Amino acid sequence: MKEQGWKQCKIAEALGVTPSAVSQWLRKGREEGVAGLHHRPAPGATPKLTAAQRQMLPGLLERGATAWGFAGEVWTCARVARMVEREFGVRYHPAHVSRLLHALGWSPQKPARRARQCAKSAITHWQQKRWPALKRGLTERVER
Known about the structure:
The chain has 144 residues and is mainly α. It is 56% helix and 0% strand. Among the domains are: 30 residues, no CATH class; 53 residues, no CATH class.
C-alpha cells in the first residue's frame, strides 16, 4: 500500500490498526526486509503442562474437589495447584493457576453462603409476603 502511494494514516484506517503499528511495520520492512514482517512466537517460558495435559484438566476438575481428598466441593487456586502437582508432578504457584484456568474457559466462582439449617418455605414466604410489605412501608414513608 505504501509503495502504491498510500499515506500511513490511510493504511492504518484500511487495516483497522493504529498509525503507530503501520509505522513499526514500515520500519521493520526497511531494516529487515520481508523476513522481519513474519510472525514471531510470543516470548516467555514454555508451558509446564503439555497441550494434552491441559486438555485433561477440565475432566479432572469435573470429578469434584472431594474426589481429590479436599473437604467440600469448592475449587480454590491452591487446591487446583495441589491437584495438578499430584496428577502431573508439575508445580504451579496458586496465582498462576487462575491464568491457567481462565485460558481453559473456567472462571472463578464464589460459593453462595447459606445457612445449613435454612427452611425453603420460610424463605419463599419472606420473599413473596414479608419483603413486599416492608418495601411498601418504606416507599410510603419516603413519599410523605
